[in-house]
User: Fold Catalase from Metabacillus halosaccharovorans.
Amino acid sequence: MTNNRLTTSWGAPVGDNQNSITAGNRGPTLLQDVHLLEKLAHFNRERVPERVVHAKGAGAHGFFEVTNDVTKYTKANLFSEVGKRTPLFIRFSTVAGENGSADTVRDPRGFAVKFYTEEGNYDIVGNNTPVFFIRDAIKFPDFIHTQKRDPQTHLKNPNAVWDFWSLSPESLHQVTILMSDRGIPATLRHMHGFGSHTFKWTNAEGDGVWIKYHFKTEQGVKNISPEVAAQIAGENPDYHTEDLFNAIEKGDFPAWKLYVQIMPLEDANTYKWDPFDVTKVWSQKDYPLIEVGRMVLDRNPENYFAEVEQATFSPGTLVPGIDVSPDKMLQGRLFAYHDAHRYRVGANHQALPINRAKNEVKNYQRDGQMRFDDNGGKSVYYEPNSLGGPTETPENKQAAYPVSGVAESVAYDHNDHYTQAGDLYRLMTEEQRAHLVSNIVAAMKPVERDDIKLRQIGHFYKADPEYGTRIAEGLGLAVPAEVK
Assistant:
């Protein structure tokens, strides 16, 4: 017979889980009821701080299978041979909303994948858009403040949103994507994913290339209108979470093809766009997509908190053969993401089952809150040592790239924030343009100050005169004379 006894957290059997220990029938409750005290104390601590961004999310397990030989570009074990399968975990999320917010809001979607490779974990922490609003991490806290709640009213503040965007013209490309039909995916299964940043692949000979990741959904891209999104938000705010779970549960496993764009290292100095500027894309005519493999999601989490909420991702979770680039936004994320997890989950978050590498972890990091393994046992706890402890492997150093210049606060050299946004507008059908303009006008109408509206209209006009004019007309304003 299976032992199914209820126990305390320290393993002792519980005799009564329905009635607390009291002094007589009417109490008061006695302090000696240690089971009651433990239950209440644990309940008070059941919630870890929610993520500052990407708080609302859904996740699933799956695998990645290599379908094309890319070993001439990278020595990463993950991509070492065609047919190789690697287990993975993915977390999808909205960006700005709280944990209880609706799934169908107009917002970028986080697209974070953890590959459990034989050489350690590798995270691709991206979005469902190929670009971002800003390109320097020093602006990130300010940007996110505009997406959160006003400190006085505790309401979302369109004045702050558009004031920041209008003063940050590099955001125009991402704003155009966000306000387009692509701004509200129909489901998490029906959207693409992107690494967004530029990364570096290095092969076994030490030769490198710059790359960008593209996950293309096999389900096809589907979006929903603002009206349908608002209706679903009211009727089922967890619609995307439920859809993903149910699809996997019934065996309709969602899948994505992974492609990369590859740029020779020397092209970074001559390409028409700064390849490390995350507000820009590389033309696929210049650097076509190369197939790498296929990602399939085939298993739901058994416990949401243990797997989805405690999952931690960082673009700094790297493996040999995959390195970073001088992208200023990426450079800031390398610190901020790991630091967020140390604060939110704890110093030993990497040791949790959902985050722990499948291969053996050997290092000299010890102690800290919630250390639940053997803490290194009695092995040597410092390095260098002469006691046979783990040592570095120089062949796995990150690849080098040249740097030069004076240490100072400098901006990117390229400041054309309008061409790519304008190109995107001109690629749209008339119906798509009408939706874009309608969405932007609706989002900007609550802005109280006309100077903010006019400044943003100027950006739209510089991207494409028709684009700016239609939004100005929708807001009952004229395009500023100085931008014509």
